[in-house]
Amino acid sequence: MKKRAISILFCIPFVLSGFSSEKIDLDSLDYYLSKQEEYDRSKEKRINLIKERIAGVSENLAALYPLYENLYDEYRSYIYDSAYVCVEKLLTISRSLNDPEKIASSSVKLGSCYLFSGLFKECFDILSTLDVSHCSAETQIDYYINKSRLYYDLADYNNSPEFRIQYHRKGNDIIDSAITLLPLESPRFWSALGLKRMKSDNYRGAVEAFGKMIDTRDYSEHDLAMATSSIAYLYILQGKTEEAKRYLIKAAIADIKSSTKETVALRNLAQILYEKGDIEHAAGYVRRALDDASFYNARHRQLEIGYILPIIERERMNIVEDQRDRISRFLILSFILSALLIAALFVIWMQLKHLNRAKQIIQKTNDDLTLTNNNLVEANKIKDEYIGYFFNQNSEYIDKLETFQKWVNRKVVAKQYDDLMNIPVNLNAHREREELYSRFDQIFLKMFPDFVNKFNDLLKPGEQIQLKKGELLNTDLRIYALIRLGINDNEKIAQFLNYSVNTIYTYKTKIKSKAQNSNEEFKQKIMEIKSM
Predict the structure, then answer these.
(1) Residue 284 — very low, low, confident or very high, per pLDDT cuts 50/70/90?
(2) For residue 366, what are the CA distances in angstroms to 221, 246, 328, 369, 379?
(3) What whole-number distance in Å separates Cα of residue 408 and Cα of residue 27?
(4) 93-132: b (≥16 Cβ within 10 Å) or e
(5) What is the pLDDT of residue 13?
(6) Are the C-beta atoms of residues 389 and 439 closer than 8 Å to each other?
(7) How many domains does the chain have?
(8) Which of 156, 251, 453, 497 could form a Cys-Cys staple with 228, CB 3.0–4.6 A?
């Protein structure tokens, strides 16, 4: 496997919590890959906000410069062409301001753009002509790190061991200048030191330095991706592929979260998985890596991926062809067995068909009998209750008639004709009717104790019937109680309740307007209310 330089670029730091406890496996990586568009949308949203601020201060060069710096930071590992445009803007503004510091800083950024895109000669032409001795420590640090990276990358792409050693030595000399300017034991210090140790073949020291950088928890997702990818590269060089795989997954997840498209983690992970025989994951990851490299327009990354992609795809196609051949043989055998099985099943099916038809008829008959039996039981219960009720009622009326007859005879014998003009109090028609309703209510609720609650459940919220104190049923409930007993004729209901047919119709219309269901469904629900 080719050695590949992994370097660190530094963004605005922030504390990343929960890194050590995050689940690290291919399933978690696949999850984050499925969310990549969401992270990219967040990146685009930040970019658009900066562009809006730029549009608001388009004439103020001093205010434009930091805004274009922010825009460049968003684009530099996202889209090369856009990052390059931002650098050109920064150079134009800094020259208009005649600010040597800004000119030098913008030139370093231009070199970084060329380096990211694989334009090594153009990067060398820019950085070799710069004099940053008069610049701020920050500009000098960026300059030395980018220039050292240039030599490290040249070493990786040079097939001659002699030149590779020379490039590494040159890069180490340059990065020493950055290390001396960085605050001791800061995240950037450990990153630069880890990079130098890695290029000096001090693998253990490099892993230790990158580990200390991660332990500070003072870095961006992009910084984390660079550090973990570097550790993975060191483990690959030592033949520790399982450890390398774990750190490459961490790096790939961090790249996704930071919307970094100029990355090597997915490609290197794909190669490890290919070597371990996980062709399906390897093919998916290497294609995603190629998409990212094309999106960023990183020419050297596309060439790297272009070398491994055909190998993985060819292996995947071989596996697919083997699977297809096995499936074909299996299908032929299955077809023969299926033909024999179908012949046997056809006979069984015909028998089962007759049996099922008989079962259905029996089941339907049983269901009908059960329903009929339940209805008969309920009807008999209602009949028994109301027959007893009306026997008692008629008996009471006969007693009252006998009492009334005796009273009339007594008045006639006594020739008290004037008293015959007055109806006895105990035969008051209104009171008799109220007693009739009261007994009806008592008997009905004895058979259907939950009728009022079940009826209210069928009405819309806020439309429930509230009975007055002492009431068992009111007129609305009595109408539907009669319907539940099977009395649907409005004339019979009106006769029983001593109302006109139109009045009964009005009551029913009012209740139906409050029902949650249609008229037919409402009536069906009423009839489904069970007796005890």
Answers:
(1) confident
(2) 70, 65, 50, 5, 19
(3) 101
(4) bbeeeebeebbbbbbbbbbbbbbbbbbbeebbebbeebeb
(5) 33
(6) yes
(7) 3
(8) 251
Residue 487 amino acid letter: I
Give 312: exposed, middle or buried? Use CB within 10 Å, 0-12, 13-18, 19+. Answer: buried
Residue that is last in its domain, among 219, 242, 269: 219
Q: What is the pLDDT of residues 158-177, one digit of tens each?
A: 767 888 889 999 999 999 99
Six-digit token string for 62: 């001093």
In a domain, 27, yes or no: no
Chain-centre distance of CA 179, in angstroms?
46
Residue 350 tokens read as 């015909």
Where a domain ends, among 219, 247, 265?
A: 219
Q: Mind listing the pLDDT tens digit for each residue in 219-239?
A: 888 889 889 989 998 998 899
Determine the residue type at 196: K
Which tokens go with 176? Answer: 């020493």
Residue type, 460: K
CA 75 to chain centre: 29
Which residue, 477, 470, 6, is CA-closest to 199? 6
Mean pLDDT of 351-355: 79
What single-letter DSSP state applies at residue 12?
Answer: -
Residue 30 lies in a domain: no
| Residue 520: domain span | 428-527
Q: What are phi and psi of 459, to 5 degrees?
A: -95, 160
State the Cα–Cα distance between residues 61 and 120, nearest whole angstrom. 31
